Amino acid sequence: MSIARSIDPAQVGFDPARLARIDEHFARYVDDGRLPGWQVVVTRRGEVAHCSTYGLRDREAGAPVQADTLWRIYSMTKPITSLAAMVLWEEGRFELTDEIGRWLPEFADMRVYSKGSTLKPYTVPAIEPIRVWHLLTHTAGLTYGFMQTSVVDGLYRAAGYDLYPPADVDLAEACRVFGELPLLFQPGTAWGYSVATDVLGRLIEVVSGQSLDSFLTERILRPLGMEDTRWYVDGADGARLAALYAADPATGRAVRYDALGAMAYEKPTLLSGGGGLISSAADYHRFTQVLLRGGELDGVRLLAPRTVRFMTRNHLPGGQDLGTLSTGGFAETTLDGIGFGLGFAVVDDPIPSRVPSSVGEYYWGGVASTAFWIDPAEQLTAMFFTQLMPSSSWPIRPQLRQLVYSALVD
Questions:
Q1: Do both 237 and 343 map to the same domain?
Q2: Which of 174, 208, 242 is the last residue of a domain?
Q3: Is 402 exposed, middle or buried (0-12, 13-18, 19+ CB in 10 A)?
Q4: How many domains does the chain fold into?
Q5: At 333, is the pLDDT very low, low, confident or very high (cuts 50, 70, 90)?
Q6: Both 148 and 30 in a single domain?
Q7: Closest C-alpha among 34, 41, 29 to residue 5
Q8: Residue 42 CB contacts under 8 Å (≥ 6 apart), including other chains
Q9: Which has the closest alpha carbon to 39: 51, 47, 30, 31?
Q10: Does 191 map to a domain?
């Protein structure tokens, strides 16, 4: 499935000449070697106002980015998994305040890191159990091994969980290991980017009685017509998948990264609700539109409007921002003025970041520099796709916001 512009941008408040600045700006990223290629989609009031591609999806093969190119979306999987969990919540299958140990006993009696080293950590009992809302907000105390910022991260790596899990480990086994490792902080007291959404995916499996891939396909992807979204590519679709690149630390140029990129061609043993999906711009556009429209698209309702509004408010304790509560390390967002909802970063105050946005805007991104945001106040969505790791290599996201909002002139 591909995507194309559906309306004259001026009809929805955009200056076409100013929108063209997006392409001019990011073309320079390709021309000087920082990116191999990219795809941008900007919509307003449900209409595609700007849709463009530039550069190559596979630089070595000379294959251009096309409207139907497939992209590894990594952590842009998280909002999809979060929405899936809220589908079950709307059915009354759990409450957000429920202890996850009710379904996942490996998390029933957690301990929290206090001091010591990876060889000899000292832990204390968790005062508060991990609850469902902790998973959705990354306040559970879990972490990622690739963070490289704490002793607990080191314990994850020692157990084999870095950027990817050990070979032949499934989601149930990964969660068993996570339950044996200490938490980074007491649940509900801080914010730490983590495997929480992978654990949420396992919770979906146990509560629904289905594998995560089956549940997502049956309840989210197929109803929305997201035909290109999948866990791996094979057959003829393999040629549509963009190659993965990494930024050379010395030159800043994009260098092919097949050691990791090749994994997208293999059926995964572990279904990662936190980072496992591949998608297209057309598919992710449909996902953003169902959220912008309050849970309904083309006659298919996944969530009630009040649920979407509830998910996209700041759920951090005391209404604090990530700048106050974050434990540091990698995250797909700036921190000051940014809250966190049930699966999304949420803008509480755009001023501290010095980047234009609206209060109530929500968003996320992926480690290969993909990103999206949804602005209910302006009825606007934007998506950027490329394949460059890590996402902190270049300030693509704030620059895209500058360019999009300065093109909005109504």
A1: yes
A2: 208
A3: middle
A4: 2
A5: confident
A6: no
A7: 41
A8: 14, 19, 22, 48, 49, 50, 51, 380, 381, 382, 383, 404
A9: 51
A10: yes
User: What DSSP letter does each residue of 94-131 carry, written as one string?
Assistant: --TTSBGGGT-GGGSS-EEEEEE-SSSEEEEE-SS--B
Where a domain ends, among 141, 176, 208? 208
Say if pTM beats, i.e. exceeds, 0.85.
yes
Confidence of residue 235 (pLDDT cuts 50, 70, 90): confident
> For tokens 């080191």, what's the residue?
154
- Sign of the Cα torsion 349, 355, 360, 362 reads negative
Question: What CA–CA distance (Å, rounded) separates 247 from 33?
Answer: 10
276 & 303 share domain: yes
Whether residue 214 lies inside any domain: the answer is: no
Quote the CA–CA distance of 313 and 344 in Å, as a whole number. Answer: 9
Q: What's the pLDDT band for 167 if we cut at 50, 70, 90? A: confident
pLDDT (tens digit, 9 = 90+) per residue, 180-226? Answer: 999 999 999 999 999 999 999 999 999 999 999 999 999 999 999 99
CA dist list (Å): 326 to 3, 133, 144, 151, 332: 37, 17, 14, 16, 12
Per-residue pLDDT, averaged over 373-393, amounts to: 96
Asked whether residue 222 is domain-assigned, the answer is: no
Cβ count within 10 A of residue 409: 10
> What range does the domain containing 288 cover?
9-80+228-406
- What's the sign of the alpha-carbon dihedral 217, 220, 224, 229? negative
pLDDT at residue 109 is higher than 80: yes
CATH of the domain at 156: 3.40.710.10
Do residues 84 and 220 make contact, with C-beta atoms less than 8 angstroms apart? Answer: yes
- Higher-confidence residue: 235 or 186? 186
3-state secondary structure of 93: coil
DSSP state of 264: G
Query: What's the angle, vertex CA 272, arms to CA 268 and CA 273, rounded to 5?
Result: 145
> Do 191 and 269 fall within a single domain?
no
